[in-house]
Specification:
Largest sheet: 7 strands, mixed
CATH architecture: 3-Layer(aba) Sandwich
CATH topology: Aminopeptidase
CATH class: Alpha Beta
Helix content: 25-40%
Number of helices: 5
CATH superfamily: Gcn5-related N-acetyltransferase (GNAT)
Bound molecules: coenzyme A
Radius of gyration: 16 Å
Structural class: alpha+beta
Strand order of the largest sheet: 1-2-3-4-5-7-6
C-alpha cells in the first residue's frame, strides 16, 4: 500500500480527525501545531490530500534507570541515573480508517525514524510509549513492546528495532 506520511502543517484538515479518544483528537485539533512551534514534539501525519487518516508524535525523553528491566540495566554504565529514550507520545488512526493496517504503518514509520535519529544525531536506547488503555497495550505488545513495571509505560529497545531490518 502506498501512503504519504508527512510533517503536520496548517494546510491539512485537523478538525475532521476523530479516533474515538477525545484526548488524542483534541491534541491534534488544538495543541499539536503549538507543540511543534515550541519544539516539544514533532508530529507526523498520514494523509490523503488534506485528510489526516492518522498521526504520531515523537519527543526526546528519559526514564530512570531503575525502571528498566535488569537485563537492560546491567549493560549500562553505572554513572547514568536516567537513560535517554525516544518518546512516541501519541499515535492514533481516524475511526473511519481503523483496521486497515494504518496504525501498524504509522508505528513502523515512527520506529524507523527513531532508529535513524539514534544512529546519527541523538542518543536513545529505545522507544517508550504511554498506552492509554488495555487495547493500546495489546496493540504495542503485538509489535514487541514490553511493559516497564510500576510505570504504565512500554518500551522497545533500539537493538530489537535494529532486528526488524527497517
Ligand atoms: C491502536 C490503533 C492506533 C490501531 O490502529 P489500526 O489502524 O486500527 O491498526 P492496524 O490495522 O494497523 O493493526 C495493526 C495490527 O495491530 C493489531 N491491533 C490493532 N488494534 C489492536 C488492539 N486494540 N489490540 C490488539 N491488537 C490490535 C491488528 O490486529 C493488526 O495485527 P495484524 O497485522 O496481525 O493483523 C487505533 O485503534 C487507534 O487509533 N486507537 C485509539 C488511539 C489509541 O489508543 N492509540 C494508542 C495509544 S496512544
Amino acid at each position: 500500500m502506498s501512503v504519504k506520511i508527512e510533517l503536520l502543517n496548517s494546510s491539512l484538515n485537523k478538525k475532521a480527525f476523530s479516533c474515538g479518544k477525545v484526548m488524542l483528537d483534541n491534541y491534534l485539533h488544538m495543541q499539536a501545531i503549538q507543540d511543534v512551534k515550541r519544539k516539544l514534539s514533532v508530529v507526523f501525519v498520514l494523509t490523503e490530500e488534506t485528510t489526516i487518516k492518522g498521526y504520531y508524535t515523537l519527543s526526546s525523553s528519559s526514564v530512570p534507570v531503575e525502571m528498566m528491566p535488569e537485563a537492560i540495566r546491567k549493560k549500562m554504565p553505572g554513572s547514568y541515573k536516567a537513560l535517554p529514550v525516544t518518546l512516541l507520545g501519541r499515535l492514533a488512526v481516524d475511526a473511519k480508517f481503523k483496521g486497515k493496517g494504518l496504525g501498524g504503518i504509522l508505528l513502523i514509520d515512527a520506529l524507523k525514524r527513531s532508529f535513524a535519529v539514534a544512529g546519527e544525531s541523538l542518543g536513545s536506547i529505545g522507544v517508550v510509549v504511554d498506552p492509554l488503555d488495555d487495547d493500546a497495550v495489546a496493540f504495542y505488545n503485538k509489535f514487541g513492546f514490553i511493559l516497564l513495571p510500576d510505570s504504565g509505560k512500554m518500551f522497545l529497545p533500539m537493538a530489537d528495532i535494529a532486528q526488524l531490518g527497517l
